[in-house]
Write a structure and sequence with these properties.
This protein is mostly beta strands and 337 residues long. Helix content is 7%, strand content 49%. It has one domain: YVTN repeat-like/Quinoprotein amine dehydrogenase (Methylamine Dehydrogenase, Chain H, 7 Propeller). 43% of the residues are buried.
Length: 337
């Protein structure tokens, strides 16, 4: 075969392989937006990822820790927790502030009836907003259209700080910080199913996209508990290089990313329950949010004001976005419709 024919053949093979790699490479989400609570400033921030800039800063009550965005992307909700840390003395919040994300302004609030330190907020498939109400040892059920509490689910434990909902919205799982446990809740019956002991102290919680496994972070040892939602029992442990504060399983169910106050960002193999990667991050008690397809993870760094961005497929950081100290609860959403 002549040199020219060999060259043409190699070029054609290279072109085909390039197309195959491009086809198999993960497509990135449209940039979208991030809605972020800033504890120190008593504000809510809107970040446009297409320009990587903060485009709105709205004052809210003292203090908002977490956020939720309505399914249509029109409104953002900020539970007003108070000026203390979990389990510590301070003021006790009693409302949820509402942000119009189109108009980029505070548009009202939802009263909760009494001081309960509302914290984590998540919309269910039923369109209702679920809020952890720490002092009531419950999750409150909120009708955002009527702007009122329409029910509550007892957690049976103190400091039910964060929670996740199953994909079908029928179950909730709370991390109970100094109780060191996870509560399993029947959302439809608004009843407590079980309390699962984990450790002396835990922080935050996450769930796989199929709802089959829940992960809670032991703060006494560098490990993550794996809970089988079919049995409501711990089915295994994931050892990690340092205690983990926040985690987020990717949509494929095979990988999870996690952040540590030690300043590390971990990649975890969920099939084999082991850490497979590590990158430098901020030494932060922040939160992780994923883009819809899971290709990017966004980590807030309250102590420094950094918003770190990671490629979840290789665990490496992308250029970060500089915000202001106090950034905490975060949610990605596709657009302000």
């Amino acid at each position: 075969m002549s040199f020219r024919k060999t060259f043409v053949l190699l070029a054609a093979v290279t072109f085909v392989l390039g197309l195959a790699r491009a086809a198999s490479a993960p497509a990135l989400d449209p940039p979208g937006y991030l809605f972020i609570a800033n504890q120190f400033e008593h504000t809510a921030l809107l970040v446009d990822l297409s320009s990587k800039t903060q485009v709105a800063r709205i004052e809210v009550g003292v203090n908002g820790h977490e956020v939720a965005v309505s399914p249509d992307g029109h409104f953002g909700y900020v539970p007003i927790y108070g000026n203390a840390g979990v389990g510590k003395p301070g003021t006790d919040g009693d409302r949820i502030d509402i942000i119009d994300l189109k108009e980029r302004k505070l548009t009202g609030s939802i009263p909760l009836g009494k001081p309960v330190r509302p914290h984590c907020a998540r919309f269910g498939p039923d369109g209702l907003l679920y809020i952890s109400a720490e002092l009531a040892q419950a999750i409150y059920v909120v009708d955002v259209k009527a702007k009122k509490v329409v029910g509550q689910i007892p957690t049976g434990a103190i400091e039910s700080h964060m929670f996740v909902l199953s994909p079908d919205g029928k179950r909730a799982y709370t991390s109970n910080v100094h109780a060191g446990s996870v509560s399993v809740l029947d959302v439809e019956k608004r009843a407590l199913i079980a309390v699962i002991p984990v450790s002396t102290i835990v922080q935050r919680i996450s769930i796989t996209a199929d709802g089959k496994r829940v992960f809670v972070h032991d703060q006494a040892q560098p490990r993550i508990a794996v809970i089988d939602t079919a049995t409501n029992k711990i089915s295994g442990w994931i050892p990690v290089g340092a205690t983990v504060y926040s985690s987020a399983p990717l949509p494929d169910g095979h990988t999870m990313v996690a952040s540590s106050p030690s300043g590390k960002f971990f990649s975890i193999d969920l099939d084999n329950l082991k850490q497979i990667g590590e990158s430098d991050a901020c030494a932060a008690l922040g939160e992780i949010a994923l883009s819809h397809d899971g290709n990017r993870a966004f980590l807030t760094c309250p102590a420094t004001g950094q918003l770190m961005v990671f490629n979840t497929h290789n665990g490496k950081p992308d250029p970060e976005i500089t915000l202001t100290k106090g950034v905490d609860g975060i949610q990605w959403f596709p657009a302000v419709k």
